[in-house]
Amino acid sequence: AALSLWHLDRLPVLQEDEPWILSPGYKLFTRGTYGSDLFAGLCGMERHYLEFMPLMSLLEGAVARVLGFGVVQMRLVPVALGVATVALAWRIARSLAGPAAAGLTALLLLLWQWGPGRHPVLATGIPLVDLCRSARYDILVAPLGLAAWWFWHRSRRPSGAFLAGTLAGLAGLAHLYGLFWIAALGLDHIAGPAISGDEPDRSRIWRLLAGALLPCGLWGGYALSHWSDLRAQMWINRREFDLTRAGFFIESLLNEAHRYALGVRHPETLLRAGFWLLVLGVPAALVWLSARAFGRRDRASRALVIPSLVLPLLLALLVRNKRFDYLASVAPLFAILLGWGLARLIEARGYSRAVAVALLGILGAQGAWAIARAHRDAARLPAPANLFRALRLEIAPGSRVLGRLRYWIALRDAEYRAFGLPFLLSDPRSSPVPISLEEALSQTAPDFVLIDAPLARALSGDSSHAASARRDEFWAYMRRRGARLVREIPDVPDGPLRVYRLGP
After folding, report:
1. Which end of the chain has fewer CB within 10 Å, C or N?
2. Helices 99-111 and 71-97 sit at what angle, rounded to 10 degrees?
3. What is the DSSP letter of 383?
4. For 374-391, what is each residue's pLDDT tens digit?
């Protein structure tokens, strides 16, 4: 936990998603409305924000209300959730396979390097270490899913199944794929009696579903009560849920390898122990535990194998967006699998123990070096506080600002709008009732426009006719409003940030 707090303001570089997720919850706890002014005027988002599940936003909004508004405060939430994930994975591994497997599980979660690192978000390549530093909802799904597993398998009381369902439902309110835990737990309950020839206890399944229905029903009722806004916002994301399209599942499955970001094109990947543990060790552990689960009818093995298969498979089939972040729920399961297998190898005599110990030594050294390298690189980055201070000196509270979402953290007292908002309002793929870009910019009516280096490249990089026309229309609006450069701030990780002031 202490290491996770080091350079928390700049490692990783502040992402667009982080303020975006915070904004509805923060508005609720400060002004009483669950909406986002960052997208005011688009599909009712300033009134009711329904585009993503609410739980992480609510949690972050509550923390910001208590601890204050800033990058570190925002990221304290995922750090705490990362600690909870390690603790739950350790406890589950201990209950299934003993203290040695539990210790190895925790070690793997902290040092197992899947990818090459040195990425804007995946700085170390160690899934949990990277994801618990980014204020996204994925890290909330992981502890809720593991907690659901715990109550499902460790509580024989009727309330245990209901509580497991409630926790799985809450995982679904963190992100929709959190509901995959319901399928995993239900399938495990059916598989046991199917193997033994007994009749499954259907009442447990009903209690699981009833528990999940409690939080999901509350959110569903709220969302459906604002049907026009819900329909409009879901229309924006219609391509992500086009399950009826021919080839959706095959295309999604074939693209799944991209999610894991293994860096197979980097030659040094073949020298990374974590890579081989993932591509060879995890399948080997699954085969070994599957033989125990279904051959020997070992209940503990089955309890781990089924979610370790179901969650990655459903992600591969049903989730078109191949973000690495979604693996936050898979990484603990894989760590328990490998922790169990490595513990058994170490307990054995002969070469297997030596190989396992050597592999862990190499993995630990490579993981520690990846963490040290990431912090070394972070120490060279400018502190966000300096940038935020410069922006606040230039832009008065109450000004209307158009810029990338990450800079809203510096200007919470301004009327901040996402830079993409006018483009979304004028795009027929994003707005059910599109208007011209000129009209959208006039409706947004910014007093200041912030353009950093990545945004400047985006405004000049697409050579297509449509993009060129929209770019010309944007700069024509800027000239019409008498935009002038009032400051250029050099200390920005992605390049200089230019502040333009617009006239009346």
Report:
1. C
2. 150
3. P
4. 999 999 998 899 999 999
